[in-house]
Specification:
single chain; mainly beta; five-stranded antiparallel β-sheet; two-stranded antiparallel ribbon
Length: 96
């Protein structure tokens, strides 16, 4: 596998990064969908590595958000498996 991946949509670069970065931290919904079936949910960051959605708190991969900042939570089923994992659920991942 390559050490750098470029995800493009209609000739425009969406994200450049390592396979791990793209999997764990998709920059937008297109990239999240590209790497697997995903759901984008409304959430709130409570603190570094803790996000809330569906009235429950979960450990996540993200930090650097303001307390109680609204975020998009990406949860996904990777295209190469039928098992659900989470990416803010992989553990989950968030975007502003």
């Amino acid at each position: 596998m390559s050490d750098t991946v470029v995800v493009m949509d209609k000739g425009r670069i969406q994200q450049i990064g390592t396979p791990e970065d793209i999997y764990n931290e998709p920059k937008n919904a297109f990239v999240a969908d590209f790497i697997g079936e995903s759901n984008i949910l409304d959430g709130v960051m409570h603190e570094d590595y803790v996000v809330e959605f569906f009235n429950r708190k979960f450990k996540c991969l993200d930090k650097g958000f303001a307390p109680m900042e609204p975020v998009d939570v990406s949860t996904m089923i990777p295209s190469w498996t039928s098992r659900a994992t989470s990416g803010l659920f992989r553990p989950p991942t968030t975007t502003r």
